[in-house]
Amino acid sequence: MTELMSKGIELMLAGMTIVFLFLTMLVVAINMMSSFIERFFPETPNLAGTAATSSSGIDKNIIAAITAAVHQHRNKQQ
Q: Full-prediction pTM beyond 0.85?
């Protein structure tokens, strides 16, 4: 019985170690890819042709359309 428990604990520790190493390698790979993308493909601000946006970053035309739709819906309900 003790041999079976020791084998089970050994298998559990091996599995946990493998999962930990895999997740560590995954985090390192994601960070490396992120730094690679930022280095070779920097994000440049597109100032020409930008739409009018509010302080929240949403296009003012979209806000106006949503407001009109809500207003129309409320008028229909009454």
A: no
